[in-house]
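Lecture 7 notes: from sequence to structure.
We start with the chain below.
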Amino acid sequence: KNKLHSQIPSFTRKLLSNLTQCNSDSISFWIKDIGGTDTILLLVGNQTVTEDIVINKVIKQLFNTGIVVTLTDDMLQKESFENIVRGKLILHIDHIPADEKDREKLQALLVSIVIHRSFLSDERTIPTQIKVIVTIDEVDSFFKNFMELTTTLFINKEEDFLSKLGISNLILLYKEIEK
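Predicted structure tokens for the same chain:
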């Protein structure tokens, strides 16, 4: 766990700490404890920047991109739980489906991951260690039943975290991340 945390460049750790409104429970702590009990990381606010920084610039660079998957409506509609999570370490959810049937399947998938830590396939139980990262602009009532099982972090406004980092705009931030 500490080895993984040490693989995050110091600027990126500083960035992850300053992205959220609560620095004591930052994104980097969740990543450091990825083998721990918190299965869902709910990141609320500034979704586009959060996805680009947390998912694309940190998670996919720390872990093989083949073990990180963003859940789509098409996947929910056409694939089994086994196909969605097989060989994956992180499931990224970037929206809550509008369709009620898809919402129910997503809820069942999350219950399988968070509560059972397994799913049924061909009448056999298959364990899973997959973790979930949710990036949304606003808290959705969909998550009310999962809140006590979720690390929820509210993302600072862009100008706030840039100011804390002493950086004037996103282009310079991305340049610093790429160093």
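Points to note: The mean pLDDT is 85. The first strand starts at residue 40 and ends at 44.
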